[in-house]
Specification:
single chain, 8% strand
């Protein structure tokens, strides 16, 4: 197997391997084309990042404006990285926020090494995850190898772009489940992956697209991960810190940060395969005209 395929497959799910540096798919439950650019902007003076000491890129998606002028209701939809570091105080805060449902987009290995104790042990929270493994490739083994054999920064960025082109199909089961919950399930809802930027980033982008939020605004939200995943935050998370400390900065950056071309690659892949985001939502995620109407009625005001 080519080295690019090895790394691309491993990037999103190798928390198990990466943690080791520092020390079949089956559902499981505890139950439009790119938009034309407009002048729509996120609401001003909105405290998007939740004040959680152990949170990782945990933020409110509320306040973004759709083309018709309606905005996403604050306090209904949250995106996040791993929740394994939440403190007791954080859990009390989230209890007060009234999060009722958590969708965990991580693989089996990621959840085993860094379980979401808060969501799985709170009987008032519906916790969803699915059994899957994107790859059995040990990225940790690759990174522990001879640095002379590391890919170049350009290759690493290329791997990430390729990875993003696979997300719409590899993660469609998870995305479909989230949309089903949003149209007929329990809110407020939070969803997460490991860093809260790639799988979670695309999920957020698809939700905002379904709400008819302009692509320019969607990209703005996507790029906020670069702000909220600061160096200090990365150091607190053992998975992300393993990448940061093992790799030279120019090699770690493509893995730890997001750039517009990544999200563009996912949307380009959708357009190439399905013709439009609308077609993808309808054919793969079960979000047709009726579901879009319901979604917008529930989430916008």
């Amino acid at each position: 197997m080519k080295r690019s395929k090895l790394l691309v497959s491993a990037l999103a799910v190798s928390a198990t391997a990466l943690i080791s540096l520092s020390a079949c798919e089956k559902p499981k439950t505890n139950s439009s084309d790119k938009a034309q650019k407009t002048t729509s902007k996120p609401v001003e003076n909105f405290e998007r990042l939740l004040p959680l000491k152990g949170g990782l890129n945990f933020r409110d998606l509320g306040g973004y404006a759709a083309r018709d002028g309606k905005t996403l209701k604050p306090g209904l939809l949250f995106r996040s990285g791993s929740m394994g570091g939440l403190t007791t105080t954080d859990k009390v805060y989230l209890k007060n926020v009234n999060v009722k449902t958590v969708y965990d987009l991580r693989s089996d290995g990621e959840r085993e090494k860094d379980p979401n104790v808060w969501a799985t042990e709170d009987e008032d929270i519906k916790y969803w995850a699915r059994q899957y493994s994107i790859s059995n490739v040990d990225l940790g083994k690759i990174l522990r190898g001879n640095p002379k054999n590391f890919p170049s920064p350009e290759e690493m960025q290329g791997f990430m772009i390729e990875f993003y082109t696979t997300l719409p199909t590899e993660q469609k089961t998870s995305f479909k489940a989230i949309f089903s919950e949003l149209t007929s399930g329990s809110l407020p809802l939070a969803f997460n992956c490991t860093a809260g930027k790639d799988r979670t980033g695309l999920a957020s982008a698809l939700i905002l697209s379904a709400l008819d939020v302009p692509y320019e605004t969607i990209m703005t939200d996507y790029l906020l991960s670069n702000t909220y995943l600061s160096d200090d935050v990365i150091k607190r998370d053992k998975t992300l810190n393993a990448i940061s400390t093992r790799l030279p900065k120019d090699l770690a950056k493509p893995l730890l940060k997001v750039i517009p071309v990544y999200l563009d690659a996912a949307f380009d892949s959708i357009k190439q395969q399905y013709g439009s985001v609308e077609n993808y939502l309808a054919s793969e995620l079960g979000v047709g005209p009726d579901e879009l109407t319901t979604l917008r009625r529930r989430l916008l005001h």
